[in-house]
Design goal:
The protein is globular and about 65 Å long. The chain folds into four domains: 31-174, no CATH class; 197-331, no CATH class; 335-420, 2-Layer Sandwich (Nucleotidyltransferase, domain 5); 430-532, no CATH class. The strands form seven sheets. Strands 15, 16, 17, 18, 19, 22, 23, 24, 25, 26 and 27 form an eleven-stranded mixed sheet that branches. Strands 1, 2, 36, 37, 38, 39 and 40 form a seven-stranded mixed sheet that branches. It is built from four helices and 40 strands. It is 8% helix and 43% strand. The two termini are 14 Å apart. The protein is mostly beta strands.
Amino acid sequence: MNLRSALVLFVAGSALPACSEKATPAEKHPAKPTGTMVEATFEGTQYKFISARISPDNGVHPSGAVYGGDALVLSTAPPGGCDAAHTESDVELLVHIGHGPGGKRFAPGPLGVTFMIDGTPHFLAVGVKGVLNINAGEWKVGNKVTGTVRLADAQGHDDKKLTYTGSGSFEAEVCALNGPELEAQATPASADQGPATGTLGDVTLTFKSGLAFLEPNATREAEQIGEIRLFDAAVDCTNWRGANIRIEGSTGAVGKDVFIGSPQLRQIYFTSGDKETALLGPAWVKFDALELKEGTEIKGSVHGEARNANLKQNPKVAGRLSGTFTAKVCKEPCVVQLDILAAGAVEYDDGGSVRGETASSRGRADFSALKPLVGRCAASLWADDEIDYDALNLAMRTLVTLGIRDVRIESGWRNASPRRRPPPRPRSVPTIISTWRAGKVEVTGNFDPKQALENMPQIIATTTKVLIAGIVVGKPEDKGLALAVAKALAPNPKDPTIILQADARVEFVTIRHLIQGAKAAGYTNVLFAMKNTGGQRLD
């Protein structure tokens, strides 16, 4: 058996579709209630979420990592709070709500969130973007927590645009809360005074300059700030390589939903060369000034800290980031988009002068027309659903051989043309070459040898089943495969890297769903591997 290649893929999430791009105060955007329920339309079907509860949602991963948080759950089950009779036919929306700045649970908001969807029927979306407003009050068992919700998301599947909309109010009974050992701790009410300073392990970085990257959202109906990078040296939009702290997330900074003065949840990563390490714990950013326009300057503050429960398990994950920052708004760098068609061609488009089509046979194509892009552009791949993993892998290896080494797969909405799809963010990625020997993956190249592959979570896809940690979580053709994968993985990992290994005959539509599920659980870096069994089945 041979492992053909291993590449790192980065998958960007969708954001709330909207139209205006001017910053306005946060209180201008509350969710509009329609009564003590949330009425929604998902994929053309109406649902009424008439019961709500708050309960712990936590666990300990076999690796020892502790994760936890209290969850707001909206359900179509009959009212009844903690005693509501939920059945498998009911649909539920679940969102984690941390203690937030000052322990106020992000009240009053607005807070941009992603609701996980669960229930029958299975939906094509793993999660739905929305805005949550929580009324101030004490979170205590037996108490009621009230607030409003606005859902507004647009995603796609098989070239069809799917919408998830709704609004309303809720009254949730507090059934139970996490204890101190798993509690997502409160953070200070405000960030430290002075320039942001971050420490993770033996790495310390003090803010001197920052960049915020402006990009289209998933449906290209609005622009958003997808990430902010803080540097300890002077940088600009054309020259910004070097050690930095990456603040990832777009809530509160997309289209009409630009929230000034209201803290928004974020993920924080310390980046140095090819190595990126997550600060595993509660984190937020608060904007004091923000306009979605290239060349403007964002002003705000940020705070993040390691989760106490994880520190008890592993003191080496200790870290903290806090303080103020400014960031110049930059347009995203060059990305050439390629579409592998079942008709025997590959379309390519860099959004400028390099665009066209070349003949293809199972992913084998002449990409010489892309030589002018080598060294300055990343590549983003899409494929028709029936294109198999083998062809996808060959196309990636051909691009890497050409010199375009930053290659990733798109997992979001596929539009009719590569030009109309939102480009993912180019990032520094490891150059990895791997082989399969004696039943083990051996990796060489620019890769941290201390990062043992056997300790990484793995998704294995055969032509008949999908396994995580040796447990079958679904079949390649399952409609709810992405959600099943997201549920099976420990969320919010310290290291957002996961190995995806598939049979050569697994189709692209399955690969896309696997990546969506991994992304929903917080795994944004995917080691892309393939077993070729020489005609023998893996299952």
